[in-house]
Specification:
Helix content: 10-25%
Number of domains: 2
Distance between the termini: 24 Å
Number of strands: 17
Order of helices and strands: EHEEHEEEHHEEEEEEHEEHEEE
Largest sheet: 7 strands, antiparallel
Number of helices: 6
Length: about 290
Protein backbone atom coordinates (compact mmCIF):
# COMPACT_ATOMS: atom_id res chain seq x y z
CA UNK A 1 0.00 0.00 0.00
CA UNK A 2 1.67 3.23 -1.17
CA UNK A 3 1.30 6.88 -0.29
CA UNK A 4 2.27 9.78 -2.54
CA UNK A 5 2.19 13.60 -2.45
CA UNK A 6 -1.32 14.72 -3.32
CA UNK A 7 -4.17 17.15 -3.10
CA UNK A 8 -7.32 15.76 -1.47
CA UNK A 9 -9.95 13.92 -3.50
CA UNK A 10 -11.92 11.00 -2.03
CA UNK A 11 -13.06 8.06 -4.19
CA UNK A 12 -15.37 5.30 -2.98
CA UNK A 13 -15.00 2.11 -4.98
CA UNK A 14 -15.40 -1.65 -4.86
CA UNK A 15 -14.93 -4.59 -7.22
CA UNK A 16 -17.88 -6.46 -8.73
CA UNK A 17 -16.31 -9.80 -7.88
CA UNK A 18 -16.03 -8.83 -4.23
CA UNK A 19 -19.61 -7.61 -4.22
CA UNK A 20 -20.83 -11.06 -5.20
CA UNK A 21 -19.17 -12.49 -2.10
CA UNK A 22 -20.75 -10.08 0.36
CA UNK A 23 -23.14 -11.86 2.74
CA UNK A 24 -26.54 -10.82 3.98
CA UNK A 25 -27.88 -11.54 7.42
CA UNK A 26 -30.79 -14.02 7.15
CA UNK A 27 -33.96 -13.64 9.20
CA UNK A 28 -37.41 -15.23 9.50
CA UNK A 29 -38.60 -13.54 6.31
CA UNK A 30 -35.72 -14.95 4.24
CA UNK A 31 -36.43 -18.47 5.47
CA UNK A 32 -39.99 -18.21 4.15
CA UNK A 33 -39.35 -16.87 0.64
CA UNK A 34 -41.73 -18.75 -1.71
CA UNK A 35 -40.47 -20.93 -4.56
CA UNK A 36 -41.93 -18.47 -7.08
CA UNK A 37 -39.23 -15.95 -6.12
CA UNK A 38 -36.37 -18.32 -7.10
CA UNK A 39 -34.58 -19.03 -10.38
CA UNK A 40 -32.05 -21.81 -11.07
CA UNK A 41 -28.54 -20.62 -11.90
CA UNK A 42 -25.06 -22.16 -12.22
CA UNK A 43 -22.53 -21.70 -9.42
CA UNK A 44 -18.90 -21.00 -10.28
CA UNK A 45 -15.54 -21.40 -8.57
CA UNK A 46 -13.01 -18.58 -8.94
CA UNK A 47 -9.50 -17.88 -7.71
CA UNK A 48 -8.58 -14.35 -6.67
CA UNK A 49 -5.54 -12.61 -5.18
CA UNK A 50 -4.49 -9.20 -3.94
CA UNK A 51 -2.41 -7.05 -6.28
CA UNK A 52 0.80 -8.08 -4.53
CA UNK A 53 0.03 -11.80 -5.02
CA UNK A 54 -1.36 -11.90 -8.57
CA UNK A 55 1.71 -13.71 -9.87
CA UNK A 56 0.33 -16.88 -8.30
CA UNK A 57 -2.96 -16.78 -10.25
CA UNK A 58 -1.93 -18.88 -13.29
CA UNK A 59 -0.97 -21.74 -10.95
CA UNK A 60 -3.98 -21.05 -8.73
CA UNK A 61 -6.25 -21.45 -11.78
CA UNK A 62 -4.95 -24.98 -12.40
CA UNK A 63 -5.46 -25.80 -8.73
CA UNK A 64 -8.99 -24.35 -8.92
CA UNK A 65 -9.79 -26.66 -11.84
CA UNK A 66 -8.88 -29.68 -9.71
CA UNK A 67 -11.05 -28.34 -6.87
CA UNK A 68 -13.90 -27.73 -9.32
CA UNK A 69 -13.78 -31.32 -10.59
CA UNK A 70 -13.85 -32.53 -6.97
CA UNK A 71 -16.88 -30.32 -6.26
CA UNK A 72 -18.68 -31.81 -9.27
CA UNK A 73 -17.88 -35.28 -7.96
CA UNK A 74 -19.10 -34.45 -4.43
CA UNK A 75 -22.40 -33.10 -5.75
CA UNK A 76 -23.05 -36.00 -8.12
CA UNK A 77 -22.08 -34.27 -11.34
CA UNK A 78 -19.41 -35.07 -13.92
CA UNK A 79 -16.93 -33.29 -16.16
CA UNK A 80 -19.66 -32.85 -18.78
CA UNK A 81 -22.75 -32.29 -16.61
CA UNK A 82 -23.51 -30.11 -13.58
CA UNK A 83 -25.52 -31.60 -10.74
CA UNK A 84 -28.40 -29.87 -8.98
CA UNK A 85 -27.01 -29.29 -5.49
CA UNK A 86 -30.23 -28.11 -3.78
CA UNK A 87 -30.41 -31.06 -1.41
CA UNK A 88 -26.79 -30.68 -0.28
CA UNK A 89 -26.21 -26.99 0.36
CA UNK A 90 -27.94 -23.79 1.44
CA UNK A 91 -28.78 -21.49 -1.47
CA UNK A 92 -27.15 -18.50 0.25
CA UNK A 93 -23.72 -18.79 -1.37
CA UNK A 94 -20.96 -16.66 0.16
CA UNK A 95 -17.62 -16.91 1.89
CA UNK A 96 -14.02 -17.56 0.91
CA UNK A 97 -11.23 -20.02 1.68
CA UNK A 98 -7.66 -18.69 1.67
CA UNK A 99 -5.02 -21.10 0.36
CA UNK A 100 -1.38 -20.37 1.21
CA UNK A 101 1.52 -21.64 -0.89
CA UNK A 102 4.67 -22.14 1.24
CA UNK A 103 8.23 -22.22 -0.05
CA UNK A 104 9.09 -25.10 2.29
CA UNK A 105 5.97 -27.04 3.21
CA UNK A 106 2.56 -28.22 2.01
CA UNK A 107 -0.35 -25.98 1.07
CA UNK A 108 -2.40 -24.72 3.99
CA UNK A 109 -5.88 -23.22 4.16
CA UNK A 110 -7.93 -21.03 6.46
CA UNK A 111 -11.27 -19.25 6.51
CA UNK A 112 -10.94 -15.45 6.87
CA UNK A 113 -12.83 -13.74 9.66
CA UNK A 114 -15.48 -12.25 7.38
CA UNK A 115 -16.41 -15.75 6.11
CA UNK A 116 -16.71 -17.52 9.47
CA UNK A 117 -20.48 -16.98 9.51
CA UNK A 118 -20.82 -18.80 6.19
CA UNK A 119 -18.87 -21.74 7.59
CA UNK A 120 -21.44 -22.03 10.40
CA UNK A 121 -24.52 -22.13 8.14
CA UNK A 122 -26.51 -25.35 7.96
CA UNK A 123 -25.80 -26.87 4.54
CA UNK A 124 -22.82 -24.52 4.18
CA UNK A 125 -21.40 -24.25 0.67
CA UNK A 126 -18.17 -23.11 2.31
CA UNK A 127 -17.85 -26.41 4.17
CA UNK A 128 -18.29 -28.23 0.87
CA UNK A 129 -15.61 -26.05 -0.71
CA UNK A 130 -13.20 -26.70 2.19
CA UNK A 131 -13.81 -30.45 1.84
CA UNK A 132 -12.98 -30.31 -1.87
CA UNK A 133 -9.81 -28.27 -1.30
CA UNK A 134 -8.63 -30.59 1.48
CA UNK A 135 -9.22 -33.59 -0.77
CA UNK A 136 -7.15 -32.06 -3.60
CA UNK A 137 -4.31 -31.19 -1.20
CA UNK A 138 -4.43 -34.72 0.28
CA UNK A 139 -4.07 -36.16 -3.24
CA UNK A 140 -0.61 -34.59 -3.38
CA UNK A 141 -1.32 -31.65 -5.67
CA UNK A 142 0.96 -28.69 -4.96
CA UNK A 143 1.75 -25.21 -6.29
CA UNK A 144 5.15 -23.60 -6.75
CA UNK A 145 5.78 -20.00 -5.79
CA UNK A 146 5.90 -17.60 -8.76
CA UNK A 147 9.33 -17.20 -10.41
CA UNK A 148 11.34 -14.47 -8.72
CA UNK A 149 9.12 -14.45 -5.63
CA UNK A 150 11.02 -13.08 -2.62
CA UNK A 151 8.39 -14.13 -0.10
CA UNK A 152 8.32 -17.47 1.72
CA UNK A 153 4.57 -17.75 1.11
CA UNK A 154 1.83 -16.42 -1.17
CA UNK A 155 -1.90 -16.55 -0.47
CA UNK A 156 -4.84 -16.66 -2.88
CA UNK A 157 -8.57 -17.05 -2.33
CA UNK A 158 -11.06 -19.60 -3.63
CA UNK A 159 -14.75 -18.80 -3.51
CA UNK A 160 -18.06 -19.89 -4.95
CA UNK A 161 -20.06 -17.23 -6.76
CA UNK A 162 -23.35 -17.27 -8.61
CA UNK A 163 -25.11 -14.92 -11.03
CA UNK A 164 -27.48 -12.47 -9.40
CA UNK A 165 -31.15 -12.54 -10.31
CA UNK A 166 -33.13 -9.28 -10.49
CA UNK A 167 -36.73 -8.80 -9.39
CA UNK A 168 -37.68 -9.12 -13.08
CA UNK A 169 -35.92 -12.56 -13.12
CA UNK A 170 -33.13 -11.30 -15.33
CA UNK A 171 -29.84 -13.12 -14.71
CA UNK A 172 -26.84 -10.84 -14.21
CA UNK A 173 -23.77 -12.89 -15.26
CA UNK A 174 -20.85 -13.40 -12.93
CA UNK A 175 -18.01 -10.97 -13.70
CA UNK A 176 -14.90 -12.92 -12.82
CA UNK A 177 -11.45 -13.28 -14.36
CA UNK A 178 -11.85 -17.05 -14.82
CA UNK A 179 -14.99 -18.71 -13.47
CA UNK A 180 -15.34 -22.52 -13.50
CA UNK A 181 -18.93 -23.94 -13.32
CA UNK A 182 -19.40 -26.56 -10.59
CA UNK A 183 -23.14 -27.16 -9.95
CA UNK A 184 -26.55 -25.44 -10.09
CA UNK A 185 -28.94 -24.17 -7.42
CA UNK A 186 -32.11 -22.04 -7.36
CA UNK A 187 -31.53 -18.58 -5.86
CA UNK A 188 -33.92 -15.81 -4.84
CA UNK A 189 -33.88 -12.50 -6.69
CA UNK A 190 -31.93 -9.79 -4.93
CA UNK A 191 -30.95 -6.16 -4.84
CA UNK A 192 -27.72 -5.16 -3.11
CA UNK A 193 -27.31 -2.04 -1.02
CA UNK A 194 -26.84 1.16 -3.02
CA UNK A 195 -25.14 4.32 -1.83
CA UNK A 196 -27.62 7.22 -1.75
CA UNK A 197 -25.57 9.76 0.21
CA UNK A 198 -21.78 9.93 0.35
CA UNK A 199 -20.21 9.95 3.81
CA UNK A 200 -18.79 13.26 4.96
CA UNK A 201 -15.20 12.09 5.49
CA UNK A 202 -12.80 14.78 6.65
CA UNK A 203 -9.26 14.83 5.20
CA UNK A 204 -6.85 14.44 8.16
CA UNK A 205 -4.81 17.53 8.96
CA UNK A 206 -1.67 15.43 9.51
CA UNK A 207 -2.03 13.91 6.01
CA UNK A 208 -2.72 17.34 4.56
CA UNK A 209 0.59 18.59 5.91
CA UNK A 210 2.38 15.59 4.32
CA UNK A 211 0.30 15.97 1.10
CA UNK A 212 -0.13 12.19 1.12
CA UNK A 213 -2.76 9.85 -0.35
CA UNK A 214 -3.73 6.26 0.29
CA UNK A 215 -6.47 3.65 0.36
CA UNK A 216 -8.47 2.29 3.28
CA UNK A 217 -10.39 -0.99 2.87
CA UNK A 218 -13.25 -1.65 5.28
CA UNK A 219 -16.04 -4.13 5.90
CA UNK A 220 -19.23 -2.90 7.54
CA UNK A 221 -22.90 -3.78 7.93
CA UNK A 222 -25.73 -1.75 6.39
CA UNK A 223 -28.94 -2.29 8.36
CA UNK A 224 -32.53 -2.51 7.12
CA UNK A 225 -32.87 1.28 7.36
CA UNK A 226 -29.84 1.85 5.13
CA UNK A 227 -27.58 3.03 7.94
CA UNK A 228 -24.04 1.86 8.73
CA UNK A 229 -23.73 -0.04 12.00
CA UNK A 230 -20.71 1.67 13.66
CA UNK A 231 -19.92 -1.41 15.77
CA UNK A 232 -19.58 -3.55 12.61
CA UNK A 233 -16.84 -1.48 10.93
CA UNK A 234 -13.49 -3.25 10.62
CA UNK A 235 -10.36 -2.88 8.52
CA UNK A 236 -9.53 -5.28 5.67
CA UNK A 237 -5.75 -5.20 5.45
CA UNK A 238 -4.33 -7.20 2.46
CA UNK A 239 -2.74 -10.54 3.35
CA UNK A 240 1.05 -10.50 3.16
CA UNK A 241 1.36 -6.71 2.88
CA UNK A 242 3.44 -4.86 5.47
CA UNK A 243 1.85 -1.87 7.14
CA UNK A 244 3.51 1.51 6.46
CA UNK A 245 5.72 2.94 9.16
CA UNK A 246 7.01 6.37 10.17
CA UNK A 247 5.15 9.41 8.86
CA UNK A 248 3.48 7.34 6.12
CA UNK A 249 2.19 4.95 8.75
CA UNK A 250 0.86 7.86 10.80
CA UNK A 251 -0.78 9.29 7.68
CA UNK A 252 -2.51 5.98 6.92
CA UNK A 253 -3.71 5.67 10.52
CA UNK A 254 -5.13 9.18 10.29
CA UNK A 255 -7.00 8.24 7.10
CA UNK A 256 -8.28 5.03 8.71
CA UNK A 257 -9.48 6.76 11.89
CA UNK A 258 -11.36 9.44 9.94
CA UNK A 259 -13.01 6.97 7.56
CA UNK A 260 -14.17 4.78 10.46
CA UNK A 261 -15.38 7.83 12.40
CA UNK A 262 -17.22 9.47 9.49
CA UNK A 263 -18.52 6.45 7.56
CA UNK A 264 -21.81 6.33 9.55
CA UNK A 265 -22.78 9.65 7.93
CA UNK A 266 -23.38 7.72 4.67
CA UNK A 267 -26.84 6.54 3.68
CA UNK A 268 -27.83 3.53 1.55
CA UNK A 269 -30.92 1.95 0.13
CA UNK A 270 -31.01 -1.42 1.97
CA UNK A 271 -30.51 -4.85 0.44
CA UNK A 272 -33.53 -6.93 -0.59
CA UNK A 273 -33.77 -10.68 -1.16
CA UNK A 274 -36.94 -12.24 -2.54
CA UNK A 275 -38.93 -9.27 -1.25
CA UNK A 276 -37.32 -9.32 2.24
CA UNK A 277 -35.37 -6.25 3.37
CA UNK A 278 -32.15 -7.55 4.92
CA UNK A 279 -28.96 -6.43 6.64
CA UNK A 280 -25.90 -6.75 4.38
CA UNK A 281 -22.14 -6.78 4.90
CA UNK A 282 -20.33 -4.44 2.51
CA UNK A 283 -16.65 -4.46 1.49
CA UNK A 284 -15.60 -1.01 0.33
CA UNK A 285 -12.46 0.89 -0.64
CA UNK A 286 -12.01 4.55 0.32
CA UNK A 287 -9.25 6.09 -1.76
CA UNK A 288 -7.64 9.49 -1.23
CA UNK A 289 -6.27 10.56 -4.63
CA UNK A 290 -4.48 13.44 -6.30
CA UNK A 291 -6.82 16.04 -7.77
CA UNK A 292 -5.08 16.90 -11.07
CA UNK A 293 -7.52 19.56 -12.14
Amino acid sequence: MKFFPALFLLFISGSRAAAQKQPVEPDACVSKIPASEFKRVPVFLEATADAQSRGILPSADFFAQSVAFKLRELTGGSESQLAEADSLINWRIWGEVLVTVHRDGPLSLRVPEWSVGADALRGSSLKLLKRAIESVIASGESIALPPGSWSDSVTFGLSLVNPRVTKERKIIPVKARQAIPVFTIPVAWEKSVELTRNPNIVYPEFSRLLRSIGMVRLAFAVDKEGRVDPASIRELWPVGVERPTGDLGKSYEAFRRNVIRDLPTARFSPAVIGGCVVKQIVHQEFEFKLDRR
